[in-house]
Amino acid sequence: MKIIFNYLIFPGLFTAICVGLLAGWFDRKISARLQWRVGPPWYQNFIDIVKLFGKETIIPRSSRWTFILAPYLGFLSIVLAAAILGKAMLSPLESFYGDIIVILYLLTMPAISMIIGASSSRNPLASVGASREMKLVLGYELPFVLSLIAVIIKCQGSIQLGSIINYQISFGSNIFSFSGILASIAAFFAMQAKLGLAPFDISEAEQEIMAGTLIEYSGLLLAVYKLIKAVMLYAMPLLLICLFMGKDLGWMLLILKYIGIVLLIVLVKNTNPRMRIDQALRFFWGPVTIVAALSVILAAVGL
Amino acid sequence: MSIKTKALTKSIWVFHVSCGSCNNCDIEILDCFTPRHDIERFGVQLIGSVRHADAILITGAMNRKSVPRMKKIYEQAPKPCVVVAVGQCALSRHMFRYSYNVREPLDEILPVDLYIPGCPPKPEAIISGIAKLIEKLNKGK
After folding, report:
1. Which of A4, A170, A179, A270 has its CA 20 to 30 A from that of A66?
2. In Å, how far is A257's CA from the nearest CA of chain B?
3. Model-level pTM?
């Protein structure tokens, strides 16, 4: 009963969607203000989702089942990741052993679902988007995993979110150490790419390949993809808070940290042009991986 | 008024097709999204794929090449989807009225819901057209 409540209402589905859509509005509003515009009202993203539920869903002549099931696959797994993460932050002692690895896998699922859905839609632009998404996943997973390893080494080899938080509560946040700040920089760029925001929105580049991976999706299935984006925007900053700024997790401070990270994401998004896919790969396998590897070495030394 | 129509009127995603226009109407449409006019505050967004569209903005005179393509694009859009003709060419063929290449105006090809006249229409005219479209949707459905 409690597990179902956790999955559906509180740290899981309902909260994740509400907070994620509000964060999406925050993104749009800040972007508008940066461009000296007024920006949409706060309920705009909710209305977009409701409207998409009411539209016709067109399924192209393609492999129907993968096309229909791919968004749900991504949605269910990202909600599960958000629920595990939120539960671990609520009560660190109740988290299970190895949940950070589970979360690492679940956070990759949206990208995989997008690749499956796009490739089964039989659209040339969608397949270009899918191949770009695949390359981007190859690019950002390496530094992301390395920065997670740095955190794990730093917290005396614990692969449990609860004990990582407990370690930070007793020894101070990871971000204030040398290895922690390097790892958090690498993880921040990986997060930007996971969220699919500029400068890494290569797979959905609207000006080049129209909507890329999402090009054939309409109505309900598109709404599910928008919800995946919203839940990602809820889960990824929370994971970063959990890993690097886990010292004070009171309500006010947690919300402030969350807003701070989302603001940073939006500022990076608005001030950087889109990279080409080769530039993005070079960026992730070059500087970001070096920074992440350096943080692993520093963590192993004990800094 | 159902919640479906209300949501539709508050978040219109616009797909923009140029069927051989001189680009002035297109520039004026893009002007609506600039800081001075900013129609994103009404929830209007330009989107790249016609599968996401709630409104199709059509500019330019429909020539023989673009008629079948335009029909195809309209069939690909998920319903409910409205068609908006922007500019004098799309309305009445304007100076191409006696051209061998432009045989029929847009509203004989597709069901047009809203006409925005002008050569090119001002951004203010496009915004007032959107307001009228919202009124029409609220009344009609």
Report:
1. A4
2. 28
3. 0.90
